Amino acid sequence: MEFLKKHGKGILLCLAIAVPSWFLGKAFPIIGGAVIAILAGMVVTLLLRDKSGVEPGIRFVSKKVLQWAVILLGFGMDLNVVVQTGRQSLPIIVCTISVSLLVAFFLRRWMQIPGKVATLVGVGSSICGGSAIAATAPVIDADEEEVAQAISVIFFFNVLAALLFPALGQAIGFDTTSGEAFGIFAGTAVNDTSSVTATAATWDSMWNLGSATLDKAVTVKLTRTLAIIPITLVLAFLRTRREKQDGGNRVDFKKIFPFFILFFIAASIVTTVAVHFGVSASVFDPVKELSKFLIVLAMAAIGLNTNIVKLVRSGGKPIALGGCCWVSITAVSLLMQHLLGLM
Q1: What is residue 51's predicted lDDT score, i.e. its pLDDT?
Q2: Is 147 exposed, middle or buried (0-12, 13-18, 19+ CB in 10 A)?
Q3: Where would I find the H helices in 28-143?
Q4: pLDDT value, residue 238
Q5: Is 301 exposed, middle or buried (0-12, 13-18, 19+ CB in 10 A)?
Q6: Predicted local distance difference test score (pLDDT) of residue 79
Q7: Helices and strands (DSSP H and E) totals, the chain
Q8: For residues 195-233, b (16+ Cβ closer than 10 Å) or e, as one string?
Q9: Which of 65, 124, 127, 271 has the fewest CB atoms in 10 Å of its CB?
Q10: Separation in Å, CA 263 to CA 115, 194, 269
Q11: Which residue in 331, 304, 236, 266 sits closest to 53, CA to CA?
């Protein structure tokens, strides 16, 4: 009861934004509910004169609910399918992730971008957009404005990818009799699930391929999602080492260890074992949908804690960084598919 008294108003406000954003995201998948929620939250917070009554609930949603969303994401992963797909797409995934992170690392200092924003943009671009940002933010102690900035950058290039990649695939000469080649490209070069879906579905409709491209792209995308695990662990280790070297308040690795990632792994194992014993993977669809909704809910909270004026003023450099990551990922994905004979 005490929890509801303290957090209830803030949680209800987040829900009031998240629910319509969720349905609008379904209607406009190229944008997605998460982006709509974060933008709506930014607008609503401008109208609130006093946020003291809702602040605890907003903070709870932006921190804890975000982690729950990542955990539930694991129920969408059959590790057997991931391994099978990984044999074909893993070299491309490893190369695209590595290049994006290296681009973000080297350009951060040259462009004078705050380290946490650069990390979130690099991880979000290379792994899986909003989900990767959600998993990484608590590990590096990123605040709401830094998360909002990274999400905004990812959104911008998601839209470009969904609009441009089908035409690019046709111009380059991807196989139009099968969705496999373009599915691999969409799954490795587009970062967020909603945009991967939109891009692959467009290719299917262009060439009457049913859902062949979409199925391949989503499976490759799920394989990429597993990179959340080593990335968050490495970032936690680097943060503790950096704090120790800087001589500031020592950060205990155990305190910032992303334990929710262990639950993410456990959820994936549960799904894999269940499917192995004959349970249909569709049984976990409601949990996957709940995970996506919780991400939208958390983005509403992050939007409510974000200064949109400050975000716009400081957004140029992160967008440029995101563009460099996006172009490098696209180029590496195409190059690797060409070298592996998958086009």
Answers
A1: 81
A2: buried
A3: 33-47, 55-60, 66-73, 79-111, 115-126, 130-140
A4: 82
A5: buried
A6: 82
A7: 17, 0
A8: bbbbbbbbbbeebebeebbbbbbbbbbbbbbbbbbebbe
A9: 65
A10: 28, 24, 10
A11: 304
**Which residue, among 51, 57, 38, 65, has the nearest Cα to 294 in the 3D structure?**
65
> Given this model, what pLDDT does residue 336 score?
93
Q: What's the angle, vertex CA 128, arms to CA 19 and CA 268, rounded to 5?
A: 85
What is residue 254's predicted lDDT score, i.e. its pLDDT? 64
HSE-up of residue 127 (Cα within 13 Å, Cβ side): 22
Q: Which of 14, 2, 21, 16 is nearest to 57 (CA)?
A: 14
Residue with tokens 């080492």: 241
Q: How far apart are CA 228 and CA 284, in angstroms?
A: 20
pLDDT score for 287: 87
What's the predicted TM-score (pTM) here?
A: 0.77
Confidence (pLDDT) at 171: 92
Q: Does an H or E element contain 254, and which?
A: helix 253-256
pLDDT along the chain (343 residues), means of 10: 85 94 83 81 86 87 81 80 78 92 91 90 86 84 85 82 88 89 92 79 85 82 83 84 65 65 85 89 85 86 77 79 94 93 83
d(CA 294, CA 65) in angstroms, rounded, equals 6
Pick from 333, 303, 290, 295: nearest CA to 96: 333
Question: To which residue do tokens 């499976």 refer?
Answer: 219
95, 84, 85: which is closest to 334 by C-alpha? 95
* CA–CA distance, 121 with 126 (Å, rounded to integer): 8
Decide: 61 and 294 in contact? Cβ < 8 Å: no
In whole angstroms, give the CA distance from residue 54 to residue 18: 15
